[in-house]
Amino acid sequence: MTNSEEHHLPKHVAIIMDGNNRFAKKKQLEKGQGHREGKNVLDPIVEYCREVGIEALTVFAFSSENWNRPQYEVDLLMSLLKDTINEQIPRMEKFEISLRFIGDRSRLSPELQDLMLHAEQRTAKFRNMTLTIAVSYGGMWDIADTAKRLAMMVKEHKLDVNQIDSDMFGQNISLGDLAPVDLLIRTGGDYRLSNFLLWQSAYAELYFTQTLWPEFTVEELEHAIDVFNGRERRFGKTSEQIQQEK
User: Fold this and answer.
1) Annotation-wise, does 118 bind a ligand?
2) Which cofactor does it need (predicted)?
C-alpha cells in the first residue's frame, strides 16, 4: 500500500499469530524458541498500524484452549507475556498507544494480573491507537461472560430484559467501545477462527496466509490491506445497492 489516501483503511485489524512452533521446527531451534522469535515480530506491525492510521490492532497471544498445552510451553508463554508487557509500556508511552488485555484473567498469576492492570492504567489516556492483547481468551467465553453480566443486571433491576438487543450486547462485550473488526488475519496456513473474536468479527474480511508468524512482515500486512480494499463489503446488501450508495 503506497498511499493511504488512495485506500480505505480498516479501522480495526485482528491477527491470529500462528506458526511459532512450526517455525522452530523448520529452523531446527530449541523448544519454545519459536515463541521468542514471534515476540519480536509485533513491534514493527504495531508501529506500521499507528503510522498509517489504523485505530485498533488486536492480537491473539494465548487462547482458552492453550492451557491444555504442555506445562513447559504454558510457563514459557506466560514468561514471554510478562517480558512483552514490560517492553511495551515505554513503547506505548512513546507512540501514545493505549494497551489493553481481554480474556479470563482468573487463571493468570496475581503477578501477571497486576502487571496487566498497571499497563492498562499507564496507557489509558492515549488515543493514537489501541493495541489489545488477547490472553486466556476465547470468543465463546466472551459471549457467555457478556450474557452473564447482562443477566445479573436484569436480576438486580438495573436493566430491563427487553432492552437487550444486538446493539446493547455488542456495547457490553470485550472491545465494545471500539470499531468492529474489519480485517482478520491468520498466519500459519490454517483456515479457521479458533474461537477468536467471534462476535466482533461477524462481518470481518478474512485473510489467511501460509506465512508463519515469526516470518510475517509489514510488507505482507500491506498486501493484506490491499486485498481488503479489493473486496466489496456488502453487510447483507446487494452489489447494486452498494454501487448506488457510492
Assistant:
1) no
2) Mg(2+)
The model's pTM is 0.92
Range of the domain at 220: 7-138+181-232
Number of domains in the chain: 1
Q: Three-state DSSP class for 80?
A: helix
Other CB atoms within 10 A of residue 165 CB: 8
192 labelled ligand-binding: yes
Active-site entry in 3, 18, 86, 114: 18
Examine residue 246 and state whether it is found in any structural domain, yes or no.
no
Instruction: Exactly one of 66, 128, 172, 229 is catalytic; name it.
Output: 66
157 lies in some domain: no
Q: Which three cell numbers stand for residue 128?
A: 493514537
Domain presence at residue 38: yes
Percent composition of the chain: helix, strand, coil (DSSP 3-state, to 5) = 50, 15, 35
Q: How far apart are CA 89 and CA 42, in angstroms?
A: 14
The answer to whether 20 is annotated as binding is yes
Active site residue 160: no
Angle formed by the axes of helices 71-95 and 42-52, nearest 10°:
30
At 188, which CATH number?
Answer: 3.40.1180.10
Is 18 among the residues known to form the active site? yes
Distance CA 145, CA 142 (A): 5
**Which pLDDT does position 1 carry in this prediction?**
42
Residue 126: inside a domain? yes
> Is residue 235 pLDDT above 90, yes or no?
no
- pLDDT tens-place string over residues 178-207: 999 999 999 999 999 999 999 999 999 999
What would the grid cell of residue 211 be?
Answer: 506465512
